[in-house]
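dude i think i finally got it to work??
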Amino acid sequence: MMTDKVLGNNQVNVYGEVISEFTFSHEVYGEGFYMVHLSVRRLSNVFDTIPLMVSERLVDVSKDYRGKFFEACGQFRSYNRHEENRNRLVLSLFVRDLRVDDTELGSDKPNYIFLDGYICKQPVYRKTPLGREIADLLLAVNRPYGKSDYIPCICWGRNARFADGFQVGEHIQIWGRIQSREYQKKLDEETFETRVAYEISVSKLEHIDEMSAVVAASEEKAEEEEEMEENRE
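look at this
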């Protein structure tokens, strides 16, 4: 099915401690969706705060789960929120399946994401003052019915050098984790607001050569036709 194929291009699994109550987000055809935040531990013992969007049909959203642990799988999604005369990209994990633990049991994939999409903005390559190489990507990942999610990704070292050669429209796949970072948004001359940005920290990166795929498909077809010819003889 087309839908199954598209869903496979955006796969997320996270496990962490619930650190907020559910807050109402929106309703679609009578189904309410709520936001809740997880604190997910990195190997370095730093914690990422990951926003989950959860249907009221998956869990009792009236309960306070703070201090319990969720394992959630689904898709990382984006939408544009209009504020301050501009659009702001808002990201969250759209949950399709959820497990609740009273105590921390852990997971094989505490923070895992796979994305298959297309470069939609020219990559930005730079070096830090200490010489560390970084490249920022914006990936468009298709959803069914003509929609797409726009997901910022950050690459390091060899991956950053590789990503620097990508052009808009090229097809790539990435593996990594969702990370959060705080930053200061200047509201006026004297006022700053602390906000949280979300991006994918890329651990593995592959370029999909569409022409190679076409050639491979053609060769497969030719081999099948040869076999049919042999069987007829």
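The longest strand covers residues 111-127.
im so relieved honestly
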